[in-house]
Design goal:
The protein has 484 residues and is α/β, with parallel strands linked by helices. It has 20 helices and 14 strands. A five-stranded parallel β-sheet has the order 2-1-3-4-5, with helices on both faces. The chain has a five-stranded parallel β-sheet with strand order 7-8-11-6-12. Strands 9-10 form a two-stranded antiparallel sheet. α13 packs across α15, α18 crosses α19 and α19 packs across α20.
Length: 484
């Protein structure tokens, strides 16, 4: 392969023997960057002008190399930093639960260690061809779906597009918030100007201010020249601030000032500049909870949410799951020059029942894998099941509606005891507990520390309970890992 044509590949593993070997073998076809931890990945990405097109990562990374949570967090962060990056997981923690969760978070493939280098090379080249096809044909362009919720979303975009006021887009990870932001831009009178996007979670907190507002030469170490920031570059255009909930508290006052009067200052300068950029922000957090917990300013929230758009989760879109299936199936079959697959009736029923915790991103990646494995075939329920994170479906507990108070709980319990044969209290409590644990992991995108905080328990307690779910029957204390 031509040296100049080599695609960039990020390899993340804490075993130097593995990274050295992969660097040597894959370096013939890829420009390889190596990191051994999430922190090193962040540092590396800040130094690169453009993020790598591909990533090959291990789940077991420091400081918890025997658990997958650092790898899960890294997948989420890489997808947030560069949604077009294709991630292949290469891990010794290769049980099916980890594989499915990695795919749900956005990995295109999961490979168990050890793996032949040629197999890895083929997987990476295939992932690269998928990425190139998406960039060339924009398969995600347009908001697909005919459900009432999607019609309402399109109507809101049409109403808000030309207004100069900020818009706050709320929705789960993978639901298409950036696509909504781009639609607001392209349907506005600013469409001829560039759409600028900054992910607030993807850059170091101490670099957010100079990135947003620019800086003067010599204002900090490394500032060898003066440089404009996003607000200056986005003058008369649209600035999309993704993951706005990650914005450091001390910078929120400065952002509020820009939103109120358009004024800001470059770091190291006293002269005020003015920007009339239209700000669109997005978050997958509960911003009201962030305000209550003192992590986000209420005045900034109210200024950002002049208009609020809620992007529906895929589980609420009913028949749109089929519309998206048809769209992506046809697109990737054409790109791969193969015959598209079909789902048999039972497999289609499963598809409609599945909650898609990773939303449209997860659905798209599942279609990619099914197209690769079963082109031209009719797929059974069992074949589809291997690609789905079925554990997430355990959250729906039949007969037990959401409990608002003790009286409602009492009534729900009474109905279940009257209607269900062979009721078992221990099994029911375990279902509830597991449902909340899985829900917390989805909300926090696999971050165990944040999930434990949501649940009000210690992180080691959460991990012990997760181990019990993965190994049913090992409920005695001797089966649990020692707290660290």
């Amino acid at each position: 392969m031509d040296e100049q044509a080599k695609p960039d590949l990020l390899i993340v593993d804490d075993d130097p023997l593995i990274t050295d070997t992969l660097n040597f073998v894959l370096g013939r076809d890829f420009s390889v960057y190596v990191a051994d931890s999430r922190a090193q990945v962040k540092s590396l990405l800040r130094q690169l002008d453009n993020p790598p097109q591909l990533a090959l990562i291990d789940l077991g990374l420091p400081p918890t190399p025997h658990r997958p949570d650092e790898g899960f967090r890294l997948i989420s962060e890489l997808i947030a930093h560069s949604p077009g990056m294709k991630i292949v997981v290469l891990s010794g923690q290769s049980d099916e639960t980890n594989a499915r969760h990695a795919r749900t978070l956005g990995a295109v493939e999961f490979v168990a260690k050890p793996c032949e280098p040629q197999t890895l090379k083929n997987l990476l080249l295939r992932a690269l061809s998928i990425r190139d096809a998406e960039l060339g044909a924009a398969p995600d362009s347009g908001l697909l779906g005919n459900s009432i919720l999607m019609e309402k979303l399109r109507q809101q975009i049409g109403q808000f597009a030309n207004a100069p006021f900020p818009v706050l887009i709320e929705g789960e990870s993978g639901s298409g918030k950036e696509l909504v932001a781009k639609s607001l831009h392209t349907m506005s009178q600013r469409a001829a100007r560039p759409f600028l996007a900054l992910n607030c979670a993807a850059i170091s907190p101490n670099l957010v201010e100079p990135t947003l507002f620019g800086y003067a030469k010599g204002s900090f170490t490394g500032a060898t020249t003066s440089r404009a920031g996003y607000f200056e570059d986005a003058k008369d255009s649209t600035l999309f601030l993704d993951e706005i909930g990650e914005l450091p508290l001390e910078l929120q006052a400065k952002l509020l000032r820009v939103l109120e009067n358009g004024e800001f200052q470059r770091v190291g300068e006293t002269q005020s500049l003015v920007s009339n950029a239209r700000v669109i922000a997005a978050t997958n957090r509960d911003m009201r909870a962030e305000i209550r917990n003192g992590r986000f300013r209420a005045d900034l929230y109210h200024r950002l949410s002049v208009f609020t758009v809620n992007v529906p989760a895929l589980r609420d879109l009913n028949g749109d799951k089929v519309t998206l299936l048809d769209h992506f199936r046809d697109f990737y079959a054409r790109q791969a020059k193969v015959t598209s697959f079909e789902l048999d009736k039972r497999a289609m029923d499963l598809w409609l029942d599945y909650s898609f915790p990773g939303n449209v991103r997860e659905l798209r990646n599942i279609v990619i894998r099914l197209t690769t494995k079963y082109s031209g075939q009719k797929i059974s329920t069992e074949q589809v099941q291997t690609e789905l994170d079925m554990e997430s479906m355990d959250i729906d507990l039949p007969g037990l509606p959401a409990v608002q108070d003790f009286k409602a709980l009492l009534e729900a319990a009474k109905r279940q005891l009257q209607l269900q044969k062979n009721f078992n209290l221990d099994d029911t409590l375990r279902q509830w507990e597991r449902g909340y644990v899985e829900a917390a992991l989805m909300v926090t995108q696999g971050n165990l520390t944040q999930a434990a905080r949501l649940l009000g328990i210690h992180r080691t307690t959460l991990y012990s309970r997760m181990q019990n779910y993965a190994n049913p029957g090992e409920n005695d204390e001797s089966a649990r890992p020692a707290p660290k």
